[in-house]
C-alpha cells in the first residue's frame, strides 16, 4: 500500500472532507426548497425528523403555508464562510439566507440548519435535522401561520356640495341552515319564499346546489338593515341573519347611469385583474364612474401574516401591510338639480344634460327610465331581472351617452355658420309660400316641410322664433356642402368630448354627404346629424361665451383649458343668435314661450326630430329643448324626450323645463 493511497483514505475520512460533504448535501436541499420540490426535500431529512412528521404532512404544511401567504420568488441561499467541520456532538451547523414575496411585504430571514451524519436506506450521508423554524423564524411545534387580508374602504363618490352619491351601509344577508331548513314544512318554506319574492323552485334549487355536509349558511337574499321583513324572519327555524357592509347609492335611479354600481368580480375580470391583487371574493365597478374610476376608488388591500400557537393566540407578526383606502371622487354634478330633472322626466324615455355655461362644469347627466343600482348590490331575483331587462322603455340603456337627431335645436348652429360665411344676414328676408318646398324637380317627390305658414317674409329671427325648416334648409344650401361640413366640424363633431366618460361621438354624416337633399335636411338637424345632449349643451355655450365653446368638466377641481373650441362663430354672430333665442322664449308666437320663467330672461330653442325609414311614413318623434338664462348665466339645460308624436311635440317639455329653471334660479 503506497503513501498516496493512505493519504487519500485519511483525507476522505477527515473532518474537512466531511464538512464539504455536508455542504454539498445542504446545497442540494436548498436548491430543492427554492424550486418547491417538497417531496424530494423530505428524502434529505434525518431519521429522527421523519419519525416526527410524515412525508404527506411535511409536503402539505409547506404547500398550505406558501399558498396561504401567496409566496412567490422564493430564494434560499446557503452561506458558507470557509471550511466547516463537525462539532463535538458530531453534527455540522450551516447558515442560509431566505427571502420570498408574499401578499403583504417580502419576508427575509437568516436561518441555521443542523446536519447529522447517519445511515439511511439511501446510504450513509449528511441529512437535515428539520424543525419549524425552517418555515418561519420563531415557529415551534404546534404553531400555525395565519394570513388575513384587510380590505380597503372603497372611496366615496360625492357631488359638488359633498352629498354622497356612492357610499356604504349595513345590510342583512338572509340565509338558511340547510339541515334545519329541510325540517320546515313546505307551507312555511313557501311563506319565506313569498316574503322574499323568490319562487319556491328557485329557492329549493339554490339550497340543493350549495348544500354539503359542513354547510351551515346559504345566502338566499340580502335586505336593507331597516327592512321590516327582517323582523318577520327573525326566529324562523332554519333562517340565519348576518350583517355586513355593502356599497350604497342614496340617489337611487336619479344617478344610476352616471355613477353606475359595483358587483362581484367575474371569472373573466379576475383573470385580467389578478396581477393587480384582486381576489375572487372582491367587488368591482361594473358600470358608470364606478367602473371608469375603479383603480382610484378601490384603494389597495392590506394584510397580516402572523404566527399563532396551538391555542390560537398570536405570537408574532411576521409581515404586515396597512390597507390604503380609495380616493373620494368629487364631481361637478349638483345632485339635487339632477334629482329634480330626473323627477320631471322619469315617466318618459328621455335624457338631459345641464352645464354651467361660464365654467363648463357639468351639473347634471340624466337618463330615464333608470334602474336602482342598489338592487344590483343586494341581488336581483330572476323575475326582477327579467322585468328590468324586458321593459320596452329600456331602463338599462344610458341615453345621455347616445347620439340622437337634434332636430330644430341644431338650427342655431346652422345660423351661426350662415352668418359667418355670409350665406345669410340677419335682416335678409326670404319669401316662402306654403308648407312644402323643394329646390327643383331634380328632388323628385321629396319636399322639406315646415309646421306653419305665417304668410310673411321670414328673416333669421323669425325663422328661429317660428322654427322654420324651409328657411334653414335653404340656408344650408346657400352655405354649400364644403363650407357647411368644414364649419360644423369645428363644433367638435366626430370627436370625443373630453370628459372621463364614454359618450358616442356626434356625427354630421355617416360617411359622405350624398346629395343636396341630405345637406338641406342637415340644416335643420335631420339627415344623418346626431348629437349627444351634452355636446349640444357645449355647442350652445358659444352663444354665452362670445363664440367659444366651454371646456367641459365632470371631476371637480381638475385643471384644463377654459375653452374646448375657440371661435366657432364670431362674437357678433353669437350675440345676434343669443338675442334671437331670447325671442324664441319671449315672442307671442315663439315656440319656447311655454317655458318662460317670470322675472328671468331665458333664451332657448325647441325642436322635434322625426325618425323614419322612408318618405311618407310616420316615424317616431323626439322632443327637444335647449335653454339658458341670460342674467349671470348659471344653467344651460338640454333635454330630450322620446315619442312625443300626438302629445304636443316638444311642448311636452314646456312645464318640465319651466319647473327646472324656476327651482335652479331661486
From TrEMBL:
This is Penicillin-binding protein. It comes from Brevibacillus choshinensis. Residues 150-313 form the Penicillin-binding protein dimerisation domain. InterPro entries: Beta-lactam/transpept, Beta-lactam/transpept-like, MecA_N, NTF2-like_dom_sf, PBP_dimer, PBP_dimer_sf, PCN-bd_Tpept. Belongs to the transpeptidase family. The keyword Transferase does not apply. Keywords: Membrane. The keyword Mitochondrion does not apply. SUPFAM superfamilies: beta-lactamase/transpeptidase-like (SSF56601), NTF2-like (SSF54427), Penicillin binding protein dimerisation domain (SSF56519). It comes from the Bacteria.
